[in-house]
What we know:
Elements: H1 2-23, E1 27-29, H2 35-43, E2 57-59, H3 60-63
Antiparallel strand pairs: 1-2
Amino acid sequence: MPVVWAALLKHLALNALEVAEIEGLRLGLMHARDDHAAGFCSHYGFGPSPIDELTPMLLRKDIRG
């Protein structure tokens, strides 16, 4: 099952990148429902957010990797 979630996260990130480039956005925020979900995001490159520990963020420049 984790492979499915990773694939969905990649799909989401690539679509968000397309929107970010059109709109001029610099980062994406994820609203994790718990620490486990936040850890999943962290594993895939999301960093801590100054907003909330359950709101990891990913800079646009980091999506392409």
